[in-house]
Structures are given as structure tokens and as C-alpha cells.
Amino acid sequence: MLNELKQRFSIPGLSFEQNHNGLVSVVIQSAACTGELFFQGAHVSSWRPFGHEPVLWLSQKSNYEKGKPIRGGVPICFPWFGPNASNTTLPAHGFARLQEWQLVGAQQKNSGAMELSLETTIDPFRLSFQVEFGNELKMTLKTLLPQNAMSSQSYEDALHTYFSVSDVRTISIRGLEPASFIDKVDDAQLKPATDSPIRIESETDRVYLDTQSDCVLEDTQWKRAIRVAKLGSASTVVWNPWIDKSKRMADFGDAEWPGMVCIETANIGDSRIRLSPGESHSTTAVISVDALSTNRNL
Ligand code: BG6
Asked: Which residues, 6+ apart, have CB-to-CB distance to 254 below 8 Å?
């Protein structure tokens, strides 16, 4: 497989690797950024735009094994989010992050960004994932319900993005102030808008509803602001497991929780996507990074 990929996609700045468990990834090294994507799950595991520190978080305890999700980067959740509603023996967050995707295209764009296109099938849907590694990271998950499908179908999706932060207790997230949310750490209660930026002060697992807004993660210690812009997404999830939940996850270091936060571009619950045969939907997240001036008044 590795040799076939190398021959088919012989493009400067693109290389392929295989780890000791047989997982294959594509590595991007260009003037704009460095990055990596595993074909299992079409999983973006790293992205570092030129002039910045790595933007995505990866656990030191992550598995890189066939059939196991990678802890960090950008898992794709599909066709459901969280546990399956009717069968809890099915994998959390669906099949997409566990199965092999095929690379069908790669090209260097005029901007210097590297664009990769991947595809897979999760019956009855056909999925394509387009990711542009440049000074922005642009990811689009397109879901098609083929014309010959027997009936309309619905699904949930999420680009479950893990961000690396200096200390989650000192960051803030703007953009979700006007949105109400489901608080998964408080009996899934529906809570009203808070009208203030999010600060993480305990285990946080929230699904923000009916929000198309950009989010800005401000990290004053690392003097950077990460913007998550999105299209085709009506829910945003914010997650940090804090102390006890980190200890319960085998693939998450006990002391790693201060270094990460997830801001997930999603369509969940009442915002699940409904498609008739022949219809498609695209969910896009665009991540960019800016320096944050030190005297900024937060
Ligand atoms: C978040 C969910 O998106 O993902 C959390 O809101 C969940 O409830 C977390 O714990 C991690 O999920 P997983 O399946 O990767 O351990």
C-alpha cells in the first residue's frame, strides 16, 4: 500500500509513513505548515502553521492501532455522536473514526496549501473528506445519500477538534455567549445562554444549540488566539474531562487534562441532518491562529 501511495501521489511536500501497528499516514511539509493525517478515520493528527506552535493536541497515551480511535487531533464522529442511542455495544461516536478511508486526490494549491481528498462508505451514505493544510486548516465532511437509497436517512456528525492550550483553567472561549446548551455533566439539562465567554473551571461537556457562530479560543499565556469558523454546522461541543474522567480513560494521561480543550463543529440531536435520496450535506470547520497582543484587555 505504501509503495502504491508513493507512486500515485509523488508530490513535493507529501510523504507517507506506516507505524509498527500497520497504520498508514500522510505527512505534509510545506512552506505554509506541517501536518499529518492517518487513513484510519481520515484523522488529522497534527497541524502546525508556519510561525506557530502545534495547534492540535494529542495524548501521549493515545493508541495508534487498527480499530482503536486516536486520542487527539480531529476524530470524525459519524453517523452518531457519543454513545449509540439504541445499541450501546456499538462504538462511541460512530464508525467513521475507526475505519479505513481512501486517498483519492492530493494537490498543492497556489496558496501553498496542500489539499487532500479522502472517501469512504458507511452504508447507506457515501462520505468524502476534504482537508486543506495551509496557514489555515480547512476541513469539509461531505455526506451523500445516493439516489438509489431506499428511504430518507438522518445522521449526526462532528469534527471533534482537540486544541493544545497552555492551561485550560486560564483560557477563554468567545462566540457561544448567546447560545443555550445541554449540560452533559449535569443530567443533560438544557441551560440558558450565559452571556459571557466560557471559562473552564471543572469537568465540562456541553452541546451548544442552534449556533453557527465562530468561536475564538484566547490563550493569553501562549499569546495566541485560535479561531474556529464553520459552515453547515448548527451545534458546537465544548469538552474538557478534568481530573476524574481523565483517570477513567485508558488512552488519556491522568495529568494531561490541563493541556487541552475540544471545540467541536457538529450537528447533533435536534440538529441532526436529514437527507432524501440524492441529497448531500457538507460540514466545514476552518481553523486559523493569530498572535494575541499581551496588553489585550480580556
Ligand atoms: C466529547 C463528548 O465530544 O467526546 C464526551 O461530548 C466524550 O462526552 C468525549 O467523553 C470523548 O469521547 P471518546 O469516545 O473519544 O472517549
From this structure: 246, 247
